Amino acid sequence: MISVTKKYLTYTHVDTGRTVSHYILIHAGSKRNTLLSHANLFLYKHTRQSKKTSSRYASIISMFYRYLSSLEDFRNIAPGSYHLYARNKNVMRWQSHREINRAKGADARPTSETIFEDAKMLMNYFRWLGDVNVSTGVKVKLKTWIPPFKNARYQEYISLRARNVIDSSIISVLDKISRQKNIRTLITLKEIQRLAENYVDPVYAALLIFAIGTAMRPMDLCRFPYYGNGLNKHIMPYSSMQFNEPTVNYVITNSKGHRTRTIIIHRDALKALEETYINPFYAERAKKYEERYGEAPPLGLLFLTTNGRPVTPASIAQRTTTAKKKARSMDPTIRESLKFYDARDWWPTQYMIRSFGNKLLQSNEGLFNYAIAQVLLSQMGHKSLTTTFQYYLDFARVILSIYQGHSLEVFRAADLSAPEFLSAISTLENDG
User: Which of 36, 337, 342, 377 has the most neighbouring CB atoms within 10 Å?
Assistant: First the structure.
């Protein structure tokens, strides 16, 4: 099997003069390394806006090319020409190959859904090749083959090929295991405290609390300004702001899907941010930024690490994983599946409780409210109005069901900031 590595590049494009960044794929041959030009052109054209997207596409193409190299038909074909000889049947068999390997190892991942989604992303690569008039043997216009994952005969085939698997329903079993691992529940106050105290850099603890209070994604948090401008010119350190209401609006631009939306931020979230990060840490970190980059940090950049580097979504994920492992070593009750993203769920849950009160415990019939759903959609940055509404309706209903005997206290707490709401809920739990 060939070796294909991916490398992240940042360079100035010769035609536009703009700085671009994306992954490239390199085939490590026995005598020399070769750039996989067609794949790299695709990565430039379609993934330079997002490092995460670029990484995933590069990994999928690399994975598929390594699979092709293991086939007899591709033994004497250079990897740079794989796109010419690949066929739809290869994409189909690649999916089954991944299921077989998963069954051999009795692994919950990749799930059947992930395997199929990866194949769809691979087809986007071949579609692009066709669009730019590059010959390829993969016919994208034909209906994409969906592996019959739930079909008993297909599962028996996978089990037979995996050989050491006895249960012919292995695919269903593994998918159920994966779903059990990925069931999302509300992050608890104890989990938040354990994560916060185990971060090596307090900026990540401040980001976690700010995420709970705003439901912002990591990519949006990293772009939150020290001093805002334009529609966000009112955003600045808490002690410099004037508040006429308990909340302020904040406009997020170029978020996921390149969308712009307006969210609500409680003033207490800004106050906590100033107390836990800006006042004790920002000035020193801004100085280190200037020493490193030769200029003061732009006013649109707030979150910096101890060495003066800007915080990134990748560093948030990495530091949270490390903090979680440390927390679990001291307290095994901390969930293995816990991640930074879970901080987003408390704001919408609280908002639903504040908006509907006891009506949440009644039938769903007539409960949908377009205005409330629209606020949720804007705050969370989701696509589906009804799905977002129902998802957090269920979370809010669970909270009210648990604390039904303390419903009045829960409703009063819903007027607080999201972290204070969570703390109040935890107090009710301890009192119970």
Answer: 36
Q: What pLDDT digit, counting tens, does each position of 100-144 carry?
A: 888 787 777 888 888 888 888 898 899 899 889 999 988 876 555
Q: Which residues pair with 266 in a beta bridge?
A: 247
3-state secondary structure of 24: strand
DSSP 76: T
For strand 247-252 and strand 19-28, is the pairing parallel, antiparallel, or unpaired? unpaired
| Helix, coil or strand: residue 267 | helix
Q: What is the mean pLDDT of the chain?
A: 87
**Residue 34 and residue 65: Cα distance in Å, rounded?**
14
- Find, among 199, 193, 142, 212, the residue nearest to 331 by Cα: 193
Span(s) in the chain for CATH 1.10.443: 189-341
- In the CATH scheme, what architecture does the domain 189-341 have? Orthogonal Bundle (1.10)
DSSP string over 392-426: HHHHHHHHHHHTGGGHHHHHHHTTS-HHHHHHHHH
Q: Which residues of 191-216 are buried (b: 16+ CB within 10 A; e: fewer)?
A: bbebbbebbebebbbbbbbbbbbbbb
Cβ atoms < 10 Å from Cβ of 154: 16
Predicted TM-score (pTM) of this structure: 0.65
Helix (H, G, I), strand (E, B) or coil at 248: strand
pLDDT higher than threshold 80 for residue 322:
yes
Residue 354: both structure tokens together: 């504040």
Residue 126: what residue type?
A: F
Q: Which residues contact 266 (CB under 8 A, 6 or more apart)?
A: 213, 246, 247, 417, 418
Report CA torsion sign: 348, 349, 355, 356. positive
13 Ramachandran zone, left/alpha/beta (phi>0; psi -120 to 50): beta
pLDDT tens digits along 362-408: 766 667 788 888 999 999 998 888 888 888 888 888 888 888 778 88
- The answer to whether 361 and 401 are in contact (CB under 8 A) is yes
